[in-house]
Amino acid sequence: MSYRHDFTGHTTNLRPIAPVEWRQLEHVLLAHWQTAGSSGATGHYVSANPRLSIFFNDMSSVSAISEAAPRKLARAIFVPAGMTLDTSFSKPLTFAHLDIHIDHAWAVRFLSAGVTRQRAVEILDRPVDRSDITEIEPMARALVGEIRDPRRHDLFASSLATCLLSGVLDIGTAEPDPGNARLTAAQMRKVARRFETGGGRRLSLSEMAQTVGLSESWFSQVFRNTTGKTPHQWQLENRVGQARDLLVGSDLSVADIADRLGFSDQSHLTRTFRRHVGETPASWRRRNR
Length: 289
Hints:
Layout (H helix, E strand, L loop, with lengths): L6 E10 L4 E4 L3 E20 L3 E5 L6 E4 L5 E2 L3 E4 L5 E5 L3 E10 L1 H8 L5 H8 L3 E3 L6 H12 L5 H15 L16 H13 L7 H7 L4 H12 L3 H19 L4 H7 L5 H12 L3 H8 L1
Antiparallel strand pairs: 1-3, 2-3, 3-8, 3-9, 4-7, 4-9, 5-6, 5-8, 7-10
Helix pairs in contact: 1-2, 3-4, 6-7, 8-10, 8-11, 9-10
């Protein structure tokens, strides 16, 4: 089994009204709880793995606190790994819920089929609340049925769990294939201006994409279609170009130029410069002055 359960929960005035029902799959642990809480009941929960909870009752009388401000407990919540969740009951309540405890590494691989790995990690680091579970509640109830009476292959229960996960997470819509799409001249000017404003220091892919209002994955592809280079290659060539200008047009030392352009040190600039120009900055300066 890939999933290793590491969950801690402390409650007061909450009690199960039926034995917990659970089922272990390769990458997830499924648990169905039926619980009663009195007015003033509290819960404190934290897990080393992300988890998804679907509630089959109106939970608006329960206050939930995580890293955000206090809010009403939604019908479906996704809690990232390591994030604490505290709940407080304002009135007596009997309720049932499905918990899906998820192996984080598997979840990253699962989401990476549709988005970049970096984006998958970002999605799993963000809590999500869903008040409307109309479309996913039937799947959640079907999964409870498979916990109680596993009549089908594990693949069926696992597929229901992944459908619920993708239905609750804030993944966004799929982007069209960029094909031969390119940045416009105006967009390229914006990117170049943003780079120049930074004094030659490297921009992150996110910063470059935000400059023209595109997602990172789409920007990366259309930028390459436009320039024939990756954003990293393009920036590196431009930084080397700025280094050449400073070597000829200023008295700054190679170390000072490296610092100004955001290279880690003089050696880093020297290695990069030699790779692109064919000689060290010092020898190139002597030959071109």
